[in-house]
């Protein structure tokens, strides 16, 4: 009996301590795992700017993030793909898209001697469609004069689970190759052409497979290719230049991308001499009309910080910083949020 | 001593009336509590089934029975079919059983009948250790150690010796249906071995002694007096292993190659029901897509129940005395 009383007392103490901490405003978010490393750094750094705010972010995937936002169980969602009109129509209020990070997707490969390759949209699409099956194919050779290409079977590796990276990659192929757009299309997961290559789980899975399998080709966020020291290709952009993926070349693509007023844009194959063509943004999704004045104000203040000051932090993690023109437009958008 | 007095106490009060009259509150409470706990299992199974049905209602309505026979899985155009995943689940589990059952039962026989006493305990400990390895760790080991070895050594050898069979034709990537089956086999060996060992241990010593008395050799004793006596229980052990094989997710996902296709070659990548759910649920947007994934869950539940029912029916065809699994 004494034990029960003691443990009840313990609970009571714990609750009072807990509620003492509640003086901080807790902001809940959920969604993209692509954003998670950036968010973690931001939440930590922003704690010094405004100690009265605390974040709880669940990195459960873009789809789940959108769902939680629609059910109003979180203050913000995060998604690697913009919401569709059909999903937005189910929302109880207007949802704003705030691009917060952008990143490039590198085309990685495993060839004997690790030569530096140049690829274009036609070659990449036809490899994944199963039309180009050997590395010494004339189409690849034509882009890579002076590189000795082996007669090795190409094994295309793709992400097996739904992912924002797959969305960016298939978005790119759909926008540059009509056959791809008709037969496969773009989504976080697609129906990959039957019998061609294999699926690996996660960016680590794709880079692992490409590293192990001679002749493999894959796609992964730039950070993974860099960290694992896997060679990646220069890709021909809309202006006809071969560009290597890097934070700078992705920022260049963002600066020239055609971004509509609602920020639901795609930045693949962006114009501009220095733009890297296979890149995408990730969005924070919030309601235009915030339910709580206190939390709304704090969240908007944080977002204003994230799209300006926060960009300096996220660029240390291989994300591309948002260019100035985009930052200004986003600040205007954030100014329209009401509570 | 204590046991005798308890026995005496039980035999002296055989009539339920007198006993229940003496039941204390504590006894009754204990009885209701255990009943409630047992009912929780039923409630859980019912809730899981109901929740899956609720979640998949849209897909059930949209595709009907075609869902089971269509091999289309196209999230972009929202066309969904479960056949390649059902195929992958059954084939990878079958491969796992073909590999695991002989190894497990042989190990169990060795441990109970033949192994010297000093070796038994360490061996049992190792088997239990294997059971405790988390699925994701086995998967990582699979990717970085097992798959490269299979690709460079076992698979080329298989292709050289048995390449005329359609099962071993085609390009070798390493990650494949066969790799998935092998990793599942490694995961179910401990469970089948442990349960089989318990069953063989519970075969009465009299059985063996009787066989020896008739002049049987050691092999004959094992075959006739032990294995034949315990076959029903051993079958149960295999079914327990199969149950785990069907639902195994993480390790399989990491080595099976994740391609929704139905091909004869075991070197080609495959896909299982559990893997596709684990892979695609997080990022599934819209209404129909998550609903189709829910329906895959329902199909997996259905396949598991069906396989168990078929196994029970098979079990009934066995006759004679038997020992049942202890688990």
Question: What can you see in these coordinates?
Answer:
- The complex is a heterodimer of chains A (339) and B (327).
- Chain A has 339 residues and is α/β, with parallel strands linked by helices.
- Helix content of chain A is 42%, strand content 18%.
- In chain A, helix 12 runs antiparallel to helix 14.
- The longest helix of chain A is centred in the first third of the chain and has 20 residues.
- About 2% of the residues of chain A have low confidence.
- With 327 residues, chain B is an all-alpha fold.
- Chain B folds into two domains: 54 residues; 261 residues, MetI-like (MetI-like fold).
- Chain B is built from 14 helices and two strands.
- The longest helix of chain B has 32 residues.
- Chain B is globular and about 70 Å long.
- The N terminus of chain B is likely disordered.
- Chains A and B meet through helix 3, strand 7 and helix 9 of A and strand 1, helix 8 and helix 13 of B.
Radius of gyration of chain A: 23 Å
Q: Please report the total strand number of chain B as a whole number.
A: 2
By oligomeric state, this entry counts as: heterodimer
Q: How many strands of chain A?
A: 11
Q: H/E element string of chain B? A: HHHHHEEHHHHHHHHH
| Number of separate helices of chain B | 14
Broad structural category of chain A: alpha/beta
Radius of gyration of chain B: 25 Å
Q: List low-pLDDT spans of chain B.
A: 1-15
CATH fold group of the largest domain in chain B: MetI-like fold
